[in-house]
Amino acid sequence: MKNAKSIAVGAAMLCGVFTASVASAATTLESVKEKGHLQCGVTSGLPGFSQPDDKGNWTGIDVDTCRAVAAAIFGDAKAVEFTPLTAKERFTALQSGEIDMLSRNTTWTLTRDASLGLNFAGVNYYDGQGFLVNKGIGVDDATQLDGATVCIQAGTTTELNLSDYFRAKGMEYKPIVFDTSEQTVQGFASGRCDVLTSDRSQLAALRSKLSDPDSAKILPNTISKEPLGPVVRQGDDQWFNIVKWVLSVQINAEELGVTSANVDDMLKSDNPNIQRLLGTDGDMGAKLGLPADFGAKAIKQVGNYGEMYDRNVGPDTPLGLERGINALWTEGGVMYAPPVR
Amino acid sequence: MAESTMKAPKKRIDPVRWARENLFSSWHNTILTLLVGYLIVTSVGPLLNWVLLDANFQGSDPSDCTGAGACWLFINQRLNFFIYGFYPEEFQWRVDIMFGLLALSFAPQFIERFPGRKWLGLFGLTGLPIVGYFLIPGGLFGLEEVQSSKWGGLMLTLILAYIGIIASLPIGTLLALGRRSEMPIIRGLCVVFIEVWRAVPLITVLFMASVMLPLFLPEGMNFEKLARALIGITLWQSAYMAEVIRGGLQAIPRGQYEAASALGLGYWKKMGLIILPQALKLVIPGIVNTFISLFKDTTLVLIIGLFDILGTVQSTVTDPAWQNVAVEGYVFVAFCFWVFCFGISRYSQNLERKLDTGHRT
C-alpha cells in the first residue's frame, strides 16, 4: 500500500516535471499562434453548454467562451478546434498539452485548483444542484423530501451532493441510479421515483422531455454550489490572464451596454471605460500580449456575456433558463468582473 | 449432352399438412404455436405503425414530428453528422471516394463471375488502406488537411474496425506461429504478449491509451488520440486473433508438417504453402467471429471521447429541441451495425463455400 502510494507520488511528480518543461518550452500564446488555432476541450454533448448542431458545428456557452478567446487572439472566432472530452479525460488532456484551454462544464473546487496543476480562469455559469419532483407528491420544498425515492445519474458528483444534503438534514432517501440522462428521465417518467436530481441548468431540459411537462415542477432549493468556468494549465500566467480577461471583458461589456450589434458605434464612445474596453484608449491589449482591439473583436464576433447566455441557455432557448444568480451584480445576480483599467 | 438420370420429384408442399406436421404435432406444440402467433399478431401491428405508418419522414424542424410513430426526421436531419462527424462538408467527397472503393472492392466478391474479382479483393486489403491514408487526413498533394479530431460517425467506426481487422490478421498470424515456435525466446515473448493483451479488457486499453499515455510522453511526442486508440485496438485484437489461428494450426495433422519437411521446404515455405492455407481455412468462422465482435467493440471509443456512430447519436439525442428521439437514434445505430455485421457474416460464408475443397472426412 505504502509502496503503491510512493509510486503514485513518483508518477505525479514525473507528470509535474513534464508539464513544467512543456510550459517553459514555449508560452501557450506563442504555440497557439504558431498552430494558427486554439485547441479547446469541451463536453461530448451537453445541451446549452457544448453540443454539435444539425450541421455538426459546436454550439453552447462553453463553446462560445472558447470562441471569444480565439477572436481575441486571432480576430477570428472560427480559429478554434474542439476536442470532445469525457469527464475522466479532461484534466489529463489539459495537463499533457493536448488542449490549450478546457471549457467543459467544470466545477471550480479547491481540490482541483490546488492539486491538479490547473488554474480556473473565472466563472461563465453559476450552477447548482436542484430537484425535479412529480407534482402528485405534493412537495413544495426539498426539506419535505424525507423518505423519497430519487433518480440519479451514476458517476457524477450529484450522487455525493445528494447524500451530503440528506445526511445534513437527517432525512432518509432511496436512490435509484441510472447510467445516462435519458434513462434517468425515463425512470422518472415511468414513476419509478418521485424526485429527479441534477444540475439546475439541465433540469428544465429534462423536464421538457417528459410527455407531460406540467406534471412535474422544479423545487426552489439549490443544494450545492457549482461554479463552472474555463480552466488553463498552471505555470503560464500570461495565458491564464488572457483567458481570464477575455471572459471579464465580455461581462464588463454587458454592464457597459456594449453588444455585438452596437460595438462599431461604441468605438466612437467617449466613455473612458468603454474606450479602454474596446482598445480605443490605453494599451490594455499589449499588457496581455494581444492586439489592442482584442475586446472589440471578441464582442463583435461572439457578443457580450448576456448575449452568450441568451443565445445558448436563456429563456428563449429550449433550456429556458432565467438569468437568476447569473445576472449582473447590478441586477441582483453575482456576475461581477474586475474593471478593465 | 443428354441427362441420363432423372431428378428426384419435386416435393409438393401442402400447407395444411405442413402445418399439422410442424406446428400442431402435439398438444404442447399447439400451445406454443398459438402463443407465438398471438405475440406476433399483437406486436407486429404496433411496431409497423411506429416504424412506418405513423412515422414522420418529411419536414424541416422538430415541430414536424407530430405522429405517435417514430421521428425519422431527426435521423434524416442529422444523417450527415452521423456519417461524417465533424468532417468539413466541402471535403466529404474524399470520404465518399473511400466508401465507394470499399464497396467496389468487396461487393463483387459475392458475384461469382465478376471480372477481376480477385484483384479487387486484393486491392481492398492492401491498396485501400494506403489510398485512405493519403486521402482522408489530407495534407499532401494539395489536399487540405483535416485533423483526426474532426473525423466521426460511421466513417470513424469503419476506419477503426477496418484497420483493426486488416492489421490484426497478419500480426495475429505471426504471434500464433511464434507461440508454436521451437525457439524459446520467441515463444516466450509471444506467450507474454498474448496473455497480457488478452487478459485486459478493451476499455482498459483505451483508457491507458487516452489518459495515461499522454502523461508519460514529452510534448513533442504527443500524437493524436485516434492513433493511440487504433494502436491499442490493433494490439488487443491481434492477441485474440493469434489464439484463433493457433487453434487452426493445432488442428492440422502432424503428417502435414512432416510431409512438408520431407519435401525439403524451409520453415516459411512450409508454413506459407502447406500449413497456413489449411489452418486459416479451418478457422474462418472463428476469425470472422472475432472480426464481428471487434466491429461492435469499436463503440467503446465513446468513453475516450471519440465520436463513432454511436457517439454522434448519443451526443445529439439529448438535444432539448427534439422530444425523446433517443429510441429512433439507437434503432438507427443498431440497424447500421446489423447491416455491416450481417454483410461480414455472409461474405465469410461465401468464402468458406468457395474454399471448401472437400478434404474433410
TrEMBL record, chain B:
<dbReference type="GO" id="GO:0006865">
    <property type="term" value="P:amino acid transport"/>
</dbReference>
<comment type="similarity">
    <text>Belongs to the binding-protein-dependent transport system permease family. HisMQ subfamily.</text>
</comment>
<feature type="transmembrane region" description="Helical">
    <location>
        <begin position="329"/>
        <end position="347"/>
    </location>
</feature>
<dbReference type="InterPro" id="IPR000515">
    <property type="entry name" value="MetI-like"/>
</dbReference>
<feature type="transmembrane region" description="Helical">
    <location>
        <begin position="271"/>
        <end position="292"/>
    </location>
</feature>
<dbReference type="InterPro" id="IPR010065">
    <property type="entry name" value="AA_ABC_transptr_permease_3TM"/>
</dbReference>
<feature type="transmembrane region" description="Helical">
    <location>
        <begin position="30"/>
        <end position="53"/>
    </location>
</feature>
<keyword id="KW-0813">Transport</keyword>
<keyword id="KW-0029">Amino-acid transport</keyword>
<keyword id="KW-0472">Membrane</keyword>
<feature type="transmembrane region" description="Helical">
    <location>
        <begin position="119"/>
        <end position="141"/>
    </location>
</feature>
<keyword id="KW-1133">Transmembrane helix</keyword>
<keyword id="KW-1003">Cell membrane</keyword>
<protein>
    <submittedName>
        <fullName>Amino acid ABC transporter, permease protein, 3-TM region, His/Glu/Gln/Arg/opine</fullName>
    </submittedName>
</protein>
<feature type="transmembrane region" description="Helical">
    <location>
        <begin position="153"/>
        <end position="177"/>
    </location>
</feature>
<keyword id="KW-0812">Transmembrane</keyword>
<dbReference type="GO" id="GO:0022857">
    <property type="term" value="F:transmembrane transporter activity"/>
</dbReference>
<feature type="transmembrane region" description="Helical">
    <location>
        <begin position="299"/>
        <end position="317"/>
    </location>
</feature>
<dbReference type="InterPro" id="IPR035906">
    <property type="entry name" value="MetI-like_sf"/>
</dbReference>
<dbReference type="Pfam" id="PF00528">
    <property type="entry name" value="BPD_transp_1"/>
</dbReference>
<dbReference type="InterPro" id="IPR043429">
    <property type="entry name" value="ArtM/GltK/GlnP/TcyL/YhdX-like"/>
</dbReference>
<feature type="domain" description="ABC transmembrane type-1">
    <location>
        <begin position="154"/>
        <end position="343"/>
    </location>
</feature>
<dbReference type="GO" id="GO:0043190">
    <property type="term" value="C:ATP-binding cassette (ABC) transporter complex"/>
</dbReference>
<feature type="transmembrane region" description="Helical">
    <location>
        <begin position="189"/>
        <end position="217"/>
    </location>
</feature>
